[in-house]
Structure formats: C-alpha cells, structure tokens
Design a protein that fits this description.
Layout lengths: L1 H24 L9 E3 L5 E2 L4 E4 L4 E3 H4 L3 E7 L6 H15 L3 H5 L1 E7 L7 H8 L7 E4 L2 H11 L3 E3 L11 E3 L3 E4 L4 E6 L5 H14 L1
Length: 206
C-alpha cells in the first residue's frame, strides 16, 4: 500500500513538472496589432553615421541601449510626412508607462540631405512632438543605412541645380532593437494607439 502511494505521488509530481514545463516553454507568442516583428531573425546593420538636428553624430554607438523608430521622409514633403510625424507624436503620448517611454526614441531621417540641414530640421520639427529627432547624412553615407533596411528613395530632378523637386520615399517605419538591429517594421496605414500597444508588449517580453 505504501509503495503504491509513493508511486502515485511520483507520477503526480512528474505530471506537474510536465505541466509547468509546457506553460513556460510553450507560451503563446505576443499578439501584435501593427508590427511585423522579426524576433530572433533581427538583422545586424552595418556601421552608419547620421548627423542630427543639433549637429551631433547619430550612429550605432549613440543608438545602443534603446529602441528606435526610424521614419524616412523629407521636410518639403507636402502631406504624407507631416501626417506620419503627427502619428508618431501621438504614439509617444499614448505610451503611459514611463519606463517604456524612456526606452523609445523616434528619428525622422531625411532622404533629401541637400535641403534638410540641421538648421532646417530644427525649425521644421518645432511643428511636431518635441521628442522627435531629425537626422540625415550625405547621400553615399545615407544609402548605407537605407540599403540595409530596404528603404527606397529617389529625387525627381531634371538637372543637378534644380531647387524645387519632389522626393519619392517609403512610408514604412523601421524598428531597431537596443542592439541597433533591424527588429521589425510598421507598414501603412499607421495607427498610433496600435503602435504604442505593440511597443509596450515587445519591450515587456524582451
């Protein structure tokens, strides 16, 4: 009788162990609304160097340790860029947890470096959220980053010294993890509340 009881207890303990193991290791993935998440497939980026609106270098060393959202556009953009920058500002304000908020930075990367100097950036960004950073680089340096991220852009110029022109660019927003790897993206149409919710889930689960 005693032997049977011990065997029963052993089987019960083993079953409990399997249940705990299943709960820990077979957990459902985080459900995201707006993010295409790369997870373990995050892509290592080459070294790059941008200059921000305060004339400071912004590269991998400076971005290390926090999550970064990069949006590529230009200050002369007539409609899409202002709309998306407002959405990014709303997203920042929608993040209620202060620790999560401190872990996130938003960078507006210009694909029109000829016109978007740090001074132009600084003036332009006054129209948007105060935490949004503006940055760019000469085209050759900029292309190191855009090519690695798969961000297309082109100038609609008829000649080199043309002052008024449009720039074609992607509306995708890129998410870099604290190791400055390409970790995910937000495709249009963008939803500030869904993005804020996803970022909280991603950071909590990382």
């Amino acid at each position: 009788m005693k032997k049977t009881r011990l065997l029963f207890i052993a089987v019960l303990a083993l079953g409990f162990g399997f249940m705990v193991s299943w709960m820990v290791f077979d957990a459902k993935p985080v459900k995201l609304e707006a993010t295409q998440w790369l997870g373990d497939q995050a892509k290592i980026l080459p070294d790059f160097k941008l200059i921000d609106h305060n004339n400071q270098v912004l590269g991998k060393a400076e971005l290390d340790g926090r999550w970064s959202i990069l949006y590529f556009g230009y200050t002369h953009c007539p409609d899409i860029c202002p709309i998306d920058l407002n959405i990014l500002g709303e997203m920042l304000d929608a993040i209620e947890d202060s620790d999560t908020r401190r872990m996130i930075r938003v960078i507006f990367v210009s694909v029109d470096p000829e016109r978007d100097t740090p001074a132009v950036f600084k003036s332009y960004l006054q129209n948007f959220h105060p935490e949004i950073i503006g940055a760019s680089a000469p085209v050759a340096e900029l292309n190191i980053l855009t090519h690695a991220l798969g961000i297309p852009h082109s100038h609609d110029k008829n000649h080199e010294h043309q002052a008024v022109y449009d720039v074609s660019h992607s509306s995708v927003m890129i998410l870099l993890n604290p190791e400055v790897e390409f970790a995910g993206l937000f495709s249009a149409p963008h939803d500030s509340s869904a993005m804020a919710s996803d970022l909280g889930k991603i950071i909590d689960s990382s």
